[in-house]
Amino acid sequence: MGIVDKAKNAAEDAMGKVKETVGDLTGNDELKAEGQKDQGVSGVKKVGENIKDKLS
């Protein structure tokens, strides 16, 4: 996994956590769910890149 990809995934995960927290604090279930989705997508990308790195 390249450094740029790692940084993008970390940023996506961080933004997801922020969205989830803000959604939780404001009672906005849609924003909270969007934050959880962003974190999930980031995690899947990270796993995929780790597998790709191991196969290289």
Automatic annotation (TrEMBL):
Q: Where is this region: Disordered?
A: 1-56
Question: Could you tell me where the Basic and acidic residues compositional bias lies?
Answer: 1-22, 46-56
What protein name applies here? General stress protein CsbD
State the species of origin.
Mycolicibacterium iranicum (Mycobacterium iranicum)
The domain of life is Bacteria
Which Pfam families is this protein grouped with? CsbD
Task: Indicate the segments forming the CsbD-like domain, all copies.
Answer: 5-55
Query: What family does the Swiss-Prot or TrEMBL record give for this protein?
Result: Belongs to the UPF0337 (CsbD) family.
Under Gene3D superfamilies, the record lists:
YjbJ (1.10.1470.10)
Q: Which InterPro entries match?
A: CsbD (IPR008462), YjbJ_sf (IPR036629)
